[in-house]
Design brief:
The chain is built from three helices and 16 strands. By secondary structure, the protein is an alpha+beta fold. It has a 16-stranded antiparallel beta barrel. α1 runs antiparallel to α2.
Length: about 425
C-alpha cells in the first residue's frame, strides 16, 4: 500500500513539473537536476511518514490482541477458581446427545381364548441429553415416547425416565441424586434394543423386577476394590393396588415419580463383580417398608432379592441367567396371601452364540434360546397369580453394532387356569446412537 502512495506522489510531482516546464522556458540542465533532487527529497519524506504510520498501527493491533488474550485468560482463571471448570472445552463440547428406538411386529395366537395379538408398534423412541458442568459434576436425562402417539385416548405416554446430577467425591466414589433407574437385574439399567436378544424384554425382568423401573432418590456409587462395584440408593417406593386384577402386582405399583403420593421410603443395594473380561456377576436387594403405600389401612413390608450372571466369551459364546424373588407379608384376608402373591418369583437362562457374517454381508449374527419361569396374574375373575413357562428361540442380526434386526418364536405354557397363552413369532428393528 505504501509503495502505491509513493508511486502516485512521484508521478504527481513529475507531471506537475512537466506541465510547468511546458508553459515556461525549457530549464537548463542544472535547473532540471535541482528539480529532480527536490522531488526525490519529497518522496523520501513521504516514505518515512508512511513507514512510521504503519509501525504505529501494527503496535496498536498487537496491544489489542494481547489485551484480549489477557481478558480471556482472566475469565478462564476466575471460572476455574470458582467452579472448577476446565478451561478447555466449550458448552457444546461438554454436552452429549444420544438415544434409541425400537419397532415391533407381534404375530401371536391365543391358545386358550380369542385374545390374539397381531400388531405393529413403534414401541419406544428415546432421547438422551447429558452435560458435564466440570470434571467432577455432570447430569444425565432420558426422555421417552412410548407407542408413537401420546395424548387423550392415545396408546402412548411421554415419560422422563432419568434426570439426575452426579458428583465425584473422589476417584472411587460418587454421589448421585435425582430421578434414576434402580440398580437391579441385567436389563433394567441397560435396556437398549441392540444389547439383548429377542424382540420383547423377558418376562422375569418386566413382571418381577419390574423393568423399566425408576424412582426419585439419593445414592452412592463406587468401587470397593478392582473389579468390585457397589450402588446404594434411598428412594421413593411402590404403591401396588390391593384390589382388582392388578392386586399386589409389582409392575402396577410404579408411580414413575409423577405426582407420586403416599409412597414409603425404600432402600436398594447392589454389588457387582466385573474383574474378568466379559463377565458380570451381580446381586441386588431391596426393602419396601410398605409396598402398598401409606394411603390405606394395610402396611405390607416387602423384600426383593435378585442375582444374575452375564458372560460373553471372546469365541462368541454367551450366557445370561437371572433369578428374582419378592417376599411380602401375608396381610391376612385382604393381603398378598389372598391373591397367591406373598411370594412372587421368576428365573431364566439364555445361552447364545454370536458370529461374523459371511463375506459380503456386513456385521454379525447372534443365535439364542431362552427359557423363562415366572409368576404373573392369571387375568381371570379370581385375579390370582399363576406360574408360567415361556420358551423362545431366535436370531439377532447386527449390520452395525448399534443397529439390530430381530426374529424370534415363542411358546407359553402353565399348569394353572389362565385367560391367555400366546404362541407365535415376533419381528423387531432397533437402534442406538
Amino acid at each position: 500500500m505504501k509503495y502505491v502512495l509513493v508511486r502516485q506522489a512521484f508521478l504527481g510531482l513529475l507531471f506537475t513539473g512537466y506541465g510547468t516546464a511546458l508553459m515556461a522556458a525549457p530549464p537548463s540542465a542544472e535547473e532540471m537536476w535541482e528539480i529532480i533532487q527536490e522531488q526525490q527529497k519529497t518522496i523520501e519524506e513521504l516514505k518515512s511518514k508512511l513507514e512510521q504510520t504503519e509501525e504505529k498501527v501494527t503496535a496498536t493491533e498487537s496491544k489489542v490482541k494481547e489485551t484480549e488474550q489477557k481478558v480471556e485468560a482472566t475469565a478462564d482463571a476466575v471460572e476455574q477458581q470458582t467452579y472448577g471448570t476446565s478451561a478447555a472445552g466449550s458448552w457444546a463440547e461438554r454436552t452429549s446427545i444420544g438415544g434409541y428406538g425400537e419397532l415391533h411386529y407381534n404375530n401371536l395366537k391365543d391358545q386358550v381364548g380369542d385374545n390374539d395379538l397381531n400388531r405393529v408398534d413403534f414401541h419406544r423412541f428415546v432421547l438422551y441429553i447429558g452435560h458435564e458442568f466440570n470434571d467432577d459434576i455432570r447430569m444425565f436425562s432420558e426422555i421417552e415416547i412410548e407407542h408413537a402417539l401420546a395424548g387423550d385416548d392415545a396408546p402412548g405416554e411421554v415419560e422422563i425416565e432419568q434426570a439426575w446430577v452426579e458428583l465425584d467425591m473422589n476417584n472411587q466414589h460418587r454421589l448421585r441424586a435425582g430421578l434414576d433407574i434402580l440398580p437391579i437385574g441385567i436389563i433394567n439399567q441397560t435396556h437398549e434394543p441392540n444389547t439383548f436378544y429377542g424382540v420383547e424384554r423377558n418376562r422375569v425382568e418386566t413382571e418381577i423386577i419390574p423393568t423399566t423401573w425408576w424412582e426419585a432418590g439419593l445414592g452412592f456409587i463406587g468401587e470397593l476394590a478392582p473389579g468390585w462395584n457397589y450402588e446404594v440408593v434411598a428412594h421413593s417406593g411402590l404403591a401396588v393396588p390391593t384390589t382388582g386384577s392388578n392386586a399386589y402386582r409389582p409392575r402396577s405399583g410404579r408411580l414413575k415419580v409423577a405426582e407420586a403420593d403416599d409412597q414409603d421410603l425404600a432402600l436398594t443395594g447392589r454389588l457387582r463383580y466385573t474383574g474378568i473380561p466379559g463377565l458380570e456377576l451381580g446381586v441386588s436387594t431391596q426393602y419396601q417398608n410398605d409396598i402398598t403405600g401409606t394411603a390405606d389401612n394395610l402396611e405390607i413390608s416387602a423384600t426383593l432379592v435378585e442375582g444374575h450372571v452375564d458372560y460373553k466369551h471372546s469365541s462368541g459364546l454367551g450366557l445370561r441367567a437371572l433369578y428374582a424373588r419378592w417376599d411380602m407379608e401375608d396381610g391376612g384376608s385382604s393381603g398378598p396371601v389372598a391373591f397367591n402373591a406373598e411370594t412372587l418369583a421368576g428365573w431364566y437362562i439364555e445361552p447364545a452364540y454370536r458370529l461374523a457374517m459371511p463375506s459380503g454381508v456386513p456385521g454379525e449374527l447372534g443365535i439364542f434360546a431362552r427359557y423363562e419361569n415366572y409368576d404373573e396374574r392369571n387375568q381371570l375373575a379370581m385375579h390370582r397369580f399363576e406360574n408360567f413357562d415361556r420358551y423362545l428361540a431366535g436370531v439377532n442380526w447386527w449390520p452395525h453394532p448399534n443397529v439390530v434386526f430381530k426374529f424370534d418364536v415363542q411358546k407359553e405354557d402353565t399348569d394353572g387356569q389362565v385367560a391367555r397363552l400366546l404362541d407365535g413369532f415376533n419381528l423387531g428393528l432397533g437402534y442406538q446412537f
